[in-house]
Every structure is written in structure tokens, then in C-alpha cells.
Amino acid sequence: MFFARTPTSAEWKAVAAAVKTLVEEATFEATPEALIFRAMDPSHIALVDLYWPNTAFEKYECDKQFRFSLRVEDFVKLFNRCETKDSVEISHTEDAIQVKFENAYKRVFTIHLIESSATTAPLPKLEFDARIKLAKDTFERILNDVSVVSDQVTIHAQTDKVVFSGKSDVGQVSIQLDKLGEGDLEINVKNESKATYSVEYLLSITKAINLNEYLICELSTKKPLRLEFRLNEHGSRIHYYLAPRIGE
């Protein structure tokens, strides 16, 4: 048996947005402790990892671990039909999931599951030397500025500042955020870190998830980047890993 209820659809909309940036099929794993989704894009450049603990739901029941797979197109279409204020109930039947949106206007959808041979992607084993918390709007603005001259961004995290830069035949750009000059900025650096990543990938996920005001960016020199988006105050989060540009 599987049943999950949330008082609003905001988290589900964020999950649908995150999933559609990377894959065409989504396989969720429900356990008695949490709802989990993890997948890598076909190019193996990016990975999304959802962890949604049972305590973060209004009601959650799962008597044994099981997996269910959906076409992402169907998943996204479904949650495009609900309002943020709608409560959401999801339950599992033999070959489908039933989804109920309820407010003044009540709807019940039955979505057939698909067979999938996809396995859960392993998480990279990483220790991060730098952690940056900043406003999501600021990060998106930085990426859009860098995209004027480059399709990749170099992030250089130092003790008291972080520098985002890009360069190409078009020109170059440098954007600096100072620890003392940006009220919403938090920088924690164990070791100075510098790595280069795809602007396109970063923009696609950052624009997709509109649930919260802040994001957490973690990196080490020439290692994958991890972005954290918190879905709520109860431990639910989406981690987004992005491989660095080699040779930069």
C-alpha cells in the first residue's frame, strides 16, 4: 500500500519541474521512510536526487518498498492542471497511480504506469570544500550575465568572496560577491575552490524550480557541483549534481 497527502501542490510542481529538465521517464522509489527519485541525464553530465521524508507529508503510508515509473510528459501535464493551493493525494493501484486534487474544485486522475528497466543512479561520493548560500534570483542573474559572453561559468570560492566569470572569443565577464557586501550571501570555505560548469544546465534547473528564495551551491576544485533546493522546512530537498568542464 502507498498513500501520500500534501496540503498544497507546490512541492509536487517543483519535483515535476526538476525531473523534466533531465529525463523522459521517471522512476520513483517509495519506502516506509521516504519518497525518493534519482536519475542521470542521457549525457551523464547531470544528476537529480530527490529526498522527501515521510514526516514532511501531511499523511504518508507505505508498508513496503516499491518502485513506480511514469512518463515525465504525463507527470508534468498532470501537475500543470492543479493550483498551488490544491491539496494532493497520491495512491498506488496495481498498474496505475491515482492522483486527487482537491479544493473547491475536486478532480481525480488515474495515470497508468510504464515498465522501465532504469536503475537508481549511484550518488557521487564527494566532500565539498566550499559552500555558498545565495538568493536564487541573484544566482540566475549571474548566469544570465555570464551567458552574454560564454556558455560556461567558472566559480572561484575564496574565504571572503566568490567570483563568477566567463570568457570566449566574444569577450569576458567577472562578477564578484563579497561576504560583507551582500546581505543574503553566506560563504563557508575550507579550501579555496575553483571549477567550471555549463551555464545552460545551471540555468535550466534554476529557472525550473521556483519554490524557494535561496539555494545552496557546494563545490571543490575541478569536482562536480551540487545545488540544493529545499522543498520545505521538514527535510525535503532536491540535490542537483553537475559535472565540471574538463580541461578548464
Task: Report on this structure.
The chain has 2 domains: 2-112, Roll (DNA Polymerase III, Chain A, domain 2); 130-242, DNA Polymerase III, Chain A, domain 2 (Roll), CATH 3.10.150. The protein is an alpha+beta fold and 248 residues long. It starts with a strand and ends in a 6-residue tail after the last strand. Helix 1 (10-20) runs antiparallel to helix 2 and helix 3 packs antiparallel against helix 4. Helix content is 17%, strand content 44%. It has helices spanning 10-20, 72-80, 136-146, 199-208; strands at 2-6, 25-30, 34-40, 46-53, 59-62, 66-71, 87-92, 96-102, 107-112, 130-135, 152-157, 161-167, 172-178, 186-189, 193-198, 214-219, 225-230, 237-242. A hairpin with a 3-residue loop joins strand 7 (87-92) and strand 8 (96-102).
